[in-house]
Amino acid sequence: MTLWKEKRRIFITCARGTVGILEGEIRALRFPDLAMLETAVETEGTLADTVRLNLSLRTAQRILYLLDAFPAVQAQDLYRRLVKLPWETIIAPDGYLSVTSSADTDAVRDPRFANMKTKDAIVDRIRDRKGRRPDSGPGRHGAVVHLHWVGDRCELWIDTSGEPLSRRGYRKIPLEAPMQETLAAAVILATGWDGRTPLINPMCGSGTLAIEGALIALERAPGILRQNFGFMHILGFDSPAFQREREELKKKAHRKAPGRIVATDIRPAAVEAARRNARTAGVEHLIEFRACDFRDTPVPDGEGVVILNPEYGERMGDTDKLGEIYRGIGDFFKSKCPGYRGYIFTGNLDLAKKVGLRTKRRMPFYNGPIECRLLEYELYRGSHRASPAGKPPG
Ligand SMILES: C[S@@+](CC[C@H](N)C(=O)[O-])C[C@H]1O[C@@H](n2cnc3c(N)ncnc32)[C@H](O)[C@@H]1O
After folding, report:
1. What is the pLDDT of residues 312-362, one digit of tens each?
2. Residue with CA closest to ligand 1 atom 16
3. How many A from CA of 203 to the centre of ligand 1?
4. Residue 324: which residues within 8 A CB-CB, separation 6 or more?
């Protein structure tokens, strides 16, 4: 099989609420947009193309490359079809294999059974042809095959990412309630921040928003830090070509960004973790860190973006005390950020009402299963307060 040069369907998944942003990224890389679903975009290309997609896309979670599509009514149909595929040309007999699946079919009640049948067919075929079989298990550090089975229709994909792309590799010290890297990138892209004006991030926690902001400002491909991707474990992987692609992307990135990035948090340990994560990501020199209350965050004069991800009572923090914090954010926006666009990312709209400022936009996002909003405030000099109930007057 010459998958590396064969154009096939490519399915790129993302977090709910971010598909429009992902689609924009895919188009910017000049890949066609064949279909847009709630949490995925379908495009097409070769297996070699997935290398660039994995290295470059900021908001993609997994990049799947189609291997086969066929009808299957029972688990035996699945096995019989899969054992005929030339797996010995795809996965090395001394490699490592993991199978994931999403199944909505009467044929199997437990998706683990579908996984097992898929894995059995692959390793039986390789053992038959090569006399040895790859190890298998749940780890995503080797070749990953994904089965999608709905009704009597099966699709089998190579998961070219392996570990989800949200694991960029820089967050060595995760704190409580960190935002996924891919979600943080989507949030920064949704603000429309262009990297030229200041980006101010009080309550930075482990620094994900500020770090993703720095990577965006440098136009640095987010995947170049990662050492391992699923595609590396598919036979025919051209390691020198991959290194060249990575070097090219590195060279394309800017060394400096024009806009200042400021990240603060009240907990010195959080600031230290954010600083170390930024160092691992190679952007420490672009971010000014400070341990302070959000109200004391330095905000340069002029225009810019100020973004906060306060606790919202789901995973940490206490809803009553948080009301005071949200009111304080409204005051901070009004008194210290005139001329800026202000953003709050929160999963608690009741708390958001306490901000007391008129929202310009409310963009829906999901943080895992939690429905969230990115609230935008235009902070004119003398911003209008909303009515006490939190509703805009008039
Ligand atoms: C939900 S976490 C932010 C997570 C962050 N987006 C990340 O990806 O790691 C909220 C942060 O707000 C900080 N915080 C709480 N009260 C604060 C205050 N009064 N001033 C500044 N930071 C505060 C906490 O220390 C915590 O790190």
Report:
1. 886 555 777 899 999 999 999 999 999 999 999 999 999 999 999 999 999
2. 266
3. 4
4. none
Model pLDDT, residue 177:
75
Evaluate whether 41 touches 390 at the Cβ level (below 8 Å): no
Domain ranges in the chain?
3-159, 181-220+259-378
Superfamily designation of domain 181-220+259-378: Vaccinia Virus protein VP39 (3.40.50.150)
Local structure of residue 20 (DSSP, 8 states): H
Res 387 pLDDT > 50: no
3-class SS at 98?
Answer: strand
CA separation, residue 348 to residues 43, 52, 153, 178 (Å):
35, 37, 40, 16
Q: Using CA atoms, how far apart are residues 161 and 51, in angstroms rounded to an integer?
A: 9
Kindly list the distances between the CA atom of residue 392 and the CA atoms of 193, 329, 339, 356, in Å, as whole numbers in the listed order: 26, 17, 20, 9
Query: Which pLDDT band, with edges at 50, 70 and 90, does 206 fall under?
Result: very high
Q: State the CATH architecture for 3-159.
A: 2-Layer Sandwich (3.30)
261 within 8 A of 217, measured Cβ to Cβ = yes
Instruction: Determine if ligand 1 sits within 6 Å of the CB of residue 206.
Output: yes
Q: Is the CB of 359 under 6 A from ligand 1?
A: no
